[in-house]
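Field notebook, page 161. I keep forgetting to write these up properly, so this time I am using the form the group agreed on. The chain and the ligand, FE2/S2 (inorganic) cluster, are recorded exactly as supplied. Prediction of the bound pose follows.
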Amino acid sequence: MKKHAITLTVNGEEHDLVVPSNRTLLDALRDDLGYTDTKYGCGTGECGACTVLVDGTTSLNGCLTLAATMDGRSITTAAGLARDGNLHPVQESFIRHDAVQCGFCTPGMVLKTISLLAENPTPSEAEIRHGLEGNICRCTGYSKIVEAVQDAGSRMQGTGE
Ligand code: FES
Ligand code: FES
């Protein structure tokens, strides 16, 4: 199979790697580069556990994206969100509202929330539920996640993030 030499910047750190054509971004992040905070759930685009941000606030499913197509792009995983020892406001809101139980969905949920709030800083409950419908949580029942997203939107408006 053809191989591709690519460069990925992940959480601000540049990585050169060689990937076969069928290597997913999720596998490259987890298995080649060690970013295991990006979770493998279904592997078929159904659960959102593998969500990452590309070039800022655009979210995509790592399991549906071929690593070779990401050459030169900048990827953000949940591990790259904290700044100077402080969690991102979305992470803080998820904690504050008990929107985390087992935590498996949480990295993808937080990253998808950042993408959602970048497009719509003050989403309604319906807009949040629609925006996060590709991210499955088996634990929380979603209500606390909705509260956390609304709180994060308010706080980020206040801080201008
Ligand atoms: S692992 Fe990618 S959507 Fe489930
Ligand atoms: S907190 Fe367990 S899957 Fe969401």
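OBSERVATIONS:
- The helical segments are 25-32, 89-96, 106-119, 125-131, 143-159.
- The chain has two domains: 3-79, 89-159.
FOLLOW-UP: compare against the apo run.
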